[in-house]
Amino acid sequence: SGCGLLVSVIKTLDASETNEQREREKLKIEREFRKTDQRLNELVSRSDGDLTRVMQLFGKVSTEVTASRERIQVVKENLQSCKQLLRCRRDELKKLYTDAIQHKYVLEMLDQITEIRKVPAQLTAFLAKKHYLHATKLLMASIETTDGKLKGVEGLNDLRQDFQNRRQQLYGKLLEELNKHLYVSSTVDVLQNFQRQASGRNSQYAAGTSPFQRNVLRRSAERVEANTKARKALFEISKNGFLDVDKSEIIEDTELLDPDVNSSYFLSIIVECFALLQKVPESIEPAQPVPILELLDLVFKQFKLIANAHQQALRNYGNVIQRYNIPQVKPYDIIEYWGQAQAVLKLVLTDYLDIQNDSGDEALLLRGQFAEQSTNVNAFFSRRKTPGKKLLFRFDKSSHTADAGGPQTADGDTGGSKEHRRNLSNVSNSTPKEEALLNSSAVSANSSHLLNSSFHQHQPYYFGGKDAAAERRKRERALVCPADASLVRKIYLPLMGYIQEIESFMKCKSGQPCSLNTFLANYVKDAYLARGHNRNLQLTIESLSKAQDAWRTIISPEEMKRLGLTRPLLQNTLIVENRIAETKKLIQDLPTYSDELLKMVCSLLKTYRETCQAAYRGIVQPETEDKRIYSVAWLKDDDITRFLKSLPNWTDLKSSNARLRQLQQKRLMKTEPSEEESPTQVQQRNVREAEMLTSNLGEGGISQQEILSDVGVLKELAILQESMEWFASRITEFAHDLKKPIVNGLVAASPVTTPGSPSPAGTATIVNSPVIVKDGMIKVLINLALEFEELANTCLLVLHLEVRVQCFHYLRSSPSDRYKANNPNKNDSLEPDAKVLKLTKVLSDMDEALSSTLHPRKTKYVFEGLAHLAARILIMAANSMEYIDHSGVQRMCRNALALQQTLSSITASREVALDYARSFYEMFYLDPEEILTSIVEKGAQFTEMQYLNALQLIFRNRGIVDPAVVGTYQQKLSDLLGTKPALGVTV
Questions:
Q1: Could you report the per-residue pLDDT of 174-183, keeping only the tens digit for each?
Q2: Domain named Exocyst complex component Sec8 N-terminal: which ranges (predicted)?
Q3: Lowest-pLDDT range, 388-397, 476-485, 672-681, 791-800?
Q4: Closest by alpha carbon to 963, among 973, 975, 955?
Q5: DSSP-based three-state secondary structure for 940
Q6: Run of H or E residues at 661
Q7: Which range marks the domain in which residue 115 is found?
Q8: Assessment of whether the complete model's pTM goes beyond 0.70
Q9: What span, in angstroms and rounded, lies between the C-alpha atoms of 200 and 737?
């Protein structure tokens, strides 16, 4: 109502024509206002108490609300502070919890490390008691721990390597035990019965050892009885005659005093250990025992026992000479005894290494190594005529004089002593079978006899003449194994252990080896290596350059299966690798000569590398240098090679190969991996290469003489690539293996603390004298491996480029001629061009050849991205066309479709790049306005230059020659492409 009154007043004042009317209206309004004010005052005075109480209550409520708001604000601030503190405390608790977990894990690792450090001592204790199963489980668990949870602990590297060495040594020891129980323990009863029934000389040796044998048998029987009480399994074995290993897992009892008493039980333990060591395939055909090692061990033990006896005799002589004051007698030294012992060992090695059958030069070389010591111990045992004094002792009661049976001379020597028999088996009437069974003991006794004879005779023994041949023929019947020069590999490490002990007994200074050491070194270096292994490897590599078919012969499918390969290799590459593998084994057998062997290997590998490079040149350019192969010539440019290797498709290939090798080494995969990639990923990887090739190869054509038209040549190139890459990986693996120290292993009987003191029978020691190959030699090998790998890379890049060069050859030669306006021979059929059909046939043949020779990942590298290049070439063909009609558009679309079908069958992908090439030519069906409209609606699918070339060709087809019209469309196109992002794939 108030608003209505105000509007009425305004209307009245507006309608008033004079000031008087306005004044009357004003007075009227003032009267009404005074009445209203009076009425309001009356009402206020009437409700004054109520208003006062309301105002007081409102003030009180307002004060309380304000205080409440302040308290709530304080509570909010306190809550926010509490929340922040809780958040900090939560982070602190989380950190403490994480630290606690970490400390717990660290403590567990420290406990594991502490336990791991105890493993070598525990292994030694288990092996000493022949508890091989416990030792194997402990060792394999330790290896799993150090290679698993503790893999990152660098402080365990030495221990980790020690475990690997112990694993190999344990495997060798188990093989020893297996051979012993297969060939010795299984026939011990028959051999003992045969020895008890033997007669003559054999009975003499049997009688001499029978008390010891009876003691051994008695102790063994006692142990068997104790073991039967300690282990129920032995009762089952004695009852059934065998252990049923199919019923339960093999369990080793540590309470057994002698675990190898029962062969059935012990064999099951050994086989179980092989399974734990993952050595079942290697051990399924155990190697035959090496009798010569047993012989040398037995002979050396005898020598040390005899040395101990000599020292005792020398002490007695010294005592007697001092007590009886005999100044004219000068006792010999124990060093002279070891000189004669070395001479005997040389005789034994001469027989077994078949040295006498070597060439004359070698015989002359080795003959000088048999010279006696300057001070001959024989002089102290020669027959002297001392007036008025008796001889201290004579050898008329020695074994060789008793067996000779000849008449005794005036000097007390028998006639047979002059014959100097070195083989007592020559007087035996035993059968060949009996001789074979007794060879070991007979030759052992023969060695002692030789040593005795060496002391007895005045003249040292030399090789040569009638007597030497007769002596050799006498010794032939006593050989425990056929004489062979390759035996040096089996006996070298044990023999070096014996030599070390001999040099310690003789107190040889550094750089002054004993005569046996020099003899062995000269034989290995000048005879065995120079005329054996090294010569074979050299002849193998030299023959490759002379053989015509050496670079065409591939390995058989059986060899591929054995090597775990899916693609064939060159036979000559496998032969050379086998020779290198033999050298690797030779370095393990003869570690002292590792430098000489590796120098020879590096030299011959350089020769083989040159031969392989010559083979590559013969494959890619068999004719004169005038014939230029485009792809090969391009790769001679280092800049182009570096560019191709910097592209994503090459780096992706190499990283994929590296991952594949790692997985194969860890045995995590057995099949080739499948890789799924989107077309966008493939396009991004290959677009740079396609741009580079079209910009460099697009100018002009490539003639027939500049391509490798023979698919067989490409196949040979692929086989060479696979062979060189595989060979490079083997050389790299060989070099990395050489970084590990070569440990000599189990080499000899346990050394004694004092010269001449005997060692306990049957004991052995592990001589840890690692031979470390020089880093420089390893670097040379790695560099050679890189050179072979570089040759493999070159072969693959040639294949990669050749496929693309042939695309240019077939696709760039026709469009400019076919689509000229005045060409009367243009083909109006709707079939693809003949050159395109030829290219599809060539690509299919290439795929068939490379699929059977190259790894799928490499074949993918060769053909991947080819569709992008082909699409760019087809699109660039429009630049050289003077006109194009509907049939020409259809033909170009069919060209793209034919290539797409062929490449899709090769790469097993859609190859969408050729869809864009087809879309480019389908654009010629449209008017210029329709082209611009499609850009607005769908976005740009091609580059501005491609659109411009297409518009110009369309204008020519439609007879539009006005520059203004052409310029207008070009300006519109530039405006559109400047504001709209490209949505398609650029090809």
A1: 988 888 888 7
A2: 34-123
A3: 388-397
A4: 955
A5: strand
A6: helix 648-665
A7: 2-129
A8: no
A9: 55
